[in-house]
Write a structure and sequence with these properties.
- By secondary structure, this protein is an all-alpha fold.
- It has six helices and no strands.
- Helix 1 packs antiparallel against helix 5.
- The protein is rod-shaped and about 90 Å long.
């Protein structure tokens, strides 16, 4: 009789552990999805700002037409990647767009009249703020991915997580190796 109580107690404890593990994984999964949603919101804001910025600077920057066309092209590619839902494609497209936007900001600095234009200045400030928010959102998302993946991959959680069909999330990483290198600043000119 006592053995029966011990077996029932072990089964109940095991069942409670599985329930707690499942609920913990669901909570982390939902937080990770929410973190991705935060990135999505900031990317949408960036996509909305870019056409306004391009329209505002087009007249001033005749010499930079190729740069403006490249930003527009990369914006379209990023939006297509976003629609596909492929995190690798999104990460790569966003990295390229971010790099090109940095070049655009530098080009705007070279035009004093353009820099003095309040509309362009406001758009550049908003774009810079959005880029900062995207970076913060990426860090938060990657932290949630780390926490979820650790909880899912540690023993014995990995056995239960596998049976419950939980899948690892991918980190939002820089795809372009050049973006990891130090920026070269030349103040001689």
């Amino acid at each position: 009789m006592i053995i029966l109580y011990i077996v029932i107690a072990v089964i109940v404890l095991l069942l409670l552990w599985v329930i707690a593990l499942y609920n913990g994984l669901i909570k982390l999964k939902n937080r990770t999805t929410e973190a991705w949603s935060d990135i999505d919101v900031q990317l949408k804001r960036r996509y909305d700002l870019i056409p306004n910025l391009i329209a505002s600077v087009k007249g001033y920057m005749q010499h930079e037409r190729g740069l403006l066309e490249e930003v527009t092209k990369l914006r379209s590619q990023a939006m297509t990647a976003e629609a596909s839902g492929d995190l690798g494609a999104i990460s790569q497209a966003e990295s390229m767009l971010g790099g090109m936007l940095s070049k655009l900001q530098i080009a705007v600095e070279a035009y004093p009249d353009l820099k003095a234009n309040t509309n362009v200045a406001q758009l550049m400030d908003e774009l810079s703020d959005t880029e900062n928010k995207i970076q913060a959102s990426r860090r938060f998302y990657n932290g949630m991915v780390r926490d979820f993946n650790i909880k899912m991959e540690t023993f014995p959680n990995n056995l239960i997580a596998g049976m419950l069909n939980f899948k690892k999330y991918d980190f939002f990483e820089i795809e372009n190796a050049e973006e990891r290198e130090n920026v070269k600043v030349d103040l001689s000119s």
